[in-house]
Amino acid sequence: MTLHWPKPNRTIAFFDVLGLFGILGFLVARFVPVARLPFWGCALRHATGWPCPSCGLTRVADRLAHGNFSGAWEANPLGTLAALLLASVTLASMLHVAFKVPIPEVELSKREALLLRATIVLLVVVNYAYVIVKAKFPWLL
Amino acid sequence: MGGGFGPGGGVPPSGGPPGPPTVRGPTPWERRAELGIVKALVETWKDSMFAPEAFWSRVRPDSPWQDSLFYAWIVFGIGALLQLPLRSLQAAQIRQLLYQLRDSMKGIPPQVQDILNQYLIGAGGVVAATISFIISIAFFPLALLLGSALLHLFCMLFGCAKNGYWATFRVLAYASSPLLFYGIPCVGVLAWIYSIVLTVFGLARVQESTLGRAAAAALALPVLSCCCCCGAIGLAAGGLAQMMRH
Questions:
Q1: Residues 6 or more apart from B47 whose CB is under 8 A from it?
Q2: What residue ranges do the domains of chain A occupy?
């Protein structure tokens, strides 16, 4: 893995667009009661009783935006980690735009990239297993 | 955080994409100072719609992103303008459905109910259609920016992000050519599908990856959205149909 530190700059990059995404997501989760809108929710769960891999993400956003970390973790652990990662990206992006703080560029070797992708897939599978167990077989937890 | 997860993403395609050798250069739209705006717009639209393989082979991954944004914005604006009379014609029906939907809402927060009531007072007229037109035009750049960020995340995951985020942005912007027809009933769906097809070709060429990886990245979001939303839309449609029967 190689890490490049560019000179201080305000160049808008992918990182900053993700930061914008994070700010908008936070505002929506904080001030719009999305989960209480009619027809909102998981259609798969509604129709079959089985959750989908992304079940609980609305609750994660809502609870995290209101400072309820344990509630968010309970709804969807991987979603909580992803949301916290997005929050840190947002914070770093704000520092980048406001104070020219450089954002490091990470370059992975082919093997490392493959390993990272495999880890992401594994995390999604494990998280989905947890969501299923929690919804259908809660006595196992 | 510019490119992908590493050089693995940009491995020269072994199984594709086939086609002419890559000779990068400005698109007709990027040569609008020389060609004139209308001719540049028409040529870019024609090339991207009817000769996508040759078009994407020419698109440079590092040309100014603002050019592609303005192109997409103009195309979307013309599409929205074409949709305006249709939307006004359908407004009365839409208002009736919205009233029925509102009446079916139980336990909705009062603030949301107020917003909905205010919207419904104005809905169904030319003014509402015009306001909706202006809002959709104003928010289009933001939607494109965020949409391409989501797409780029999948590009990173599937290893077709060699040339960075702005290359993905450029692909999504030029692939919005079919959106000229998005407001026309039935044709709009086909336009959306064709836009995804153009995105697949574009990602493969501009990010110098394979068609398989590009297809996986471009289809991941629509497939996930369909899994989560289509059922909900189906339930909503079912609910509305049930209400209309009574």
A1: B27, B28, B54, B55
A2: 2-140
